[in-house]
Design brief:
This protein has eight helices and seven strands. By secondary structure, it is of the alpha/beta class. It has a single domain (about 5-230), classed as Spore Coat Polysaccharide Biosynthesis Protein SpsA, Chain A. Helix 1 (about 20-30) links the parallel strand 1 and strand 2 (about 40-45). The two termini are about 25 Å apart.
Length: about 240
């Protein structure tokens, strides 16, 4: 039995070379779970870390009965880590958070209040603690992406999201997909709500992002998404005899 099926909500945590963050991350997650609005667990996805992240993940899972992990040997980047997490989750809802704690698990409760009303509930970071350069890159990237996708997502880079699992599993995946989750949910005729949440400085380690993967790469991804919007197929089965 997949252990996540015993819970209503699974928090997916993609991890790539974040050994310096793991102890504080584990503490914050463990403190949150008893206070979550619904029965919740944590699923770490080790994205081919080359440091001691996997060792620390295993230690956290041994110490916490509601912590689980999956791991693969080579780094495949964030979108692949999220896809792996979505594929291995069987709870009714799932969400994700980055390991750097620039957003906190406790703020999932703000999003979970709306889980039964929307397909996706996404955070918008307030008072971001990034450098001016990163903020500018993010602002330009978000504006360009909104112009192409028409999804209305204000802060697609915010890692705090809650999604109905069945819809998350139906999203088409590609490198850079995590920037387009709201657009991909809307393609399914799903609904989305955005809520402001606090933002904090990275607790340790270094960012894995650059100008390329904030601006240049997403430009080409937007073109792919524009094509997908024109060609995406939705269908609704209203009769079947498969279940007799």
């Amino acid at each position: 039995m997949n252990q996540t099926a015993r819970y209503e909500f699974t928090i997916i945590v993609p991890v790539f070379n974040e050994e310096e963050c793991m102890e504080q991350l584990g503490q914050k997650l463990a403190e949150y779970l008893p206070n979550a609005l619904c029965k919740s667990c944590v699923l770490f996805v080790n994205d081919g870390s080359s440091d001691r992240s996997l060792e620390k993940i295993k230690a956290l899972c041994s110490a916490n009965p509601d912590f689980y992990y999956i791991s693969y040997p080579r780094n495949a980047k964030k979108s692949a880590a999220l896809k792996a997490g979505f594929d291995y989750t069987q709870s009714e809802y799932l969400g994700y958070i980055d390991a750097d704690l620039q957003t906190l698990p406790e703020d999932f409760n703000t999003l979970l209040e709306y889980r039964d009303k929307y397909t996706l509930v996404a955070g918008i970071r307030m008072n971001r603690q990034d450098t001016k350069s990163k903020k500018l890159q993010s602002k330009i990237g978000n504006a360009f992406r909104r112009g192409i996708t028409k999804d209305g997502a204000i802060d697609t880079g915010c890692p705090l999201k809650v999604i109905r699992t069945e819809n998350a599993k139906r999203m088409p995946f590609f490198t850079g997909m995590h920037r387009f989750i709201q657009a991909l949910i809307l393609l399914q005729e799903g609904t989305a709500k955005q809520i402001h949440i606090p933002s904090y400085a990275r607790v340790a380690g270094t960012s894995k992002y650059s100008v390329w993967n904030r601006l240049v790469g997403p430009f080409f991804d937007c073109l792919a998404l524009a094509w997908m919007r024109r060609n995406y197929i939705n269908y609704h089965v209203n009769d079947t005899d498969l279940e007799k």
